[in-house]
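Input record (one chain):
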Amino acid sequence: MLRITRVAALILAYLFLALALIGVFVPGLPTVPFLLLTAWFSAKGSERLHRWLYAHPRLGQLLIDWEKQGAISRRSKIVALVMITLSWLLMFYRIKNSWLVFIISIVLIIVLAYLFSRPEPR
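The corresponding structure, as predicted from the sequence alone:
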């Protein structure tokens, strides 16, 4: 099993937190997967950062819902659907390779199917 040092975990936690925060504003860059990675690495690298994440008024509830119920809120699902659709439209008009568009489209459909298969928080 891969063992990770505390310093490496801390660096990765902050890297993924930065990517998650950028993902809030940049279409096509996912927020929640990076947030989940931040939580995982912060648990190994910084108890303080880990507590801050779970106590955060916006981010904390996403993490708690996922950890306890494997749940994703309806609002998060709708935002993901809108952002993925916008990203797909941009990709469709900018990428000339039809096979690449097809493959990415399949991946995006699988991601959406997974998101919408998750329960909503109780």
